[in-house]
Amino acid sequence: MAAMKPRTAHTLTRLVALRRQNAEQALGQARISLDEEKAKLAALQAELRSAAPDCEQDYAALSLSDRFGNSTRLLGQIEAQKSVVALCEETLAIRRKHLKRAFGSEQSLKDIVSSRK
To answer: Using the 8-state DSSP alphabet, how is residue 5 labeled?
Structure first.
């Protein structure tokens, strides 16, 4: 195999570093989004618990649902928020895989460049 030109190696190193940086930023954004959605879920659950503080959550939800209908709305919002949190967790896992691949690419490129010197 022909040796890699220094300029080519430098360009590839920069591209891989940019890819890694982009993956790190995307992972950070996904973590922030997940934290925000979990906070929203916790707030909804706290609102549901505050409606009947002396009862367990499941019983309170059913009891209030029969009496006022507010808990039905809250339970629907909680379930919707759980699905949003699950989606954010999936996104976070995908972003983590992308970052791992970027680190792998960076290491592979370093190995190739160092072996050809």
So the answer is: P
Q: State if pTM tops 0.85.
A: no
- In tens, the pLDDT along 27-41 reads 999 999 999 999 999
Which of 2-18 are b and which e, b meaning 16 or more Cβ less than 10 Å from the residue's Cβ? eebeeeebeeeeeebee
User: CA 32, 22, 104: angle at the middle one, nearest 5?
Assistant: 110
- Tell me which amino acid residue 93 is: A
Q: pLDDT tens digit string along 61-84?
A: 566 556 667 777 888 899 999 999
Contact yes or no for 51/63 (Cβ under 8 A)? no
Enter the tokens of residue 44. 């909804």
Cα torsion 35, 77, 47, 55 to 10°: value is: -120
Q: How far apart are CA 71 and CA 93, in angstroms?
A: 32
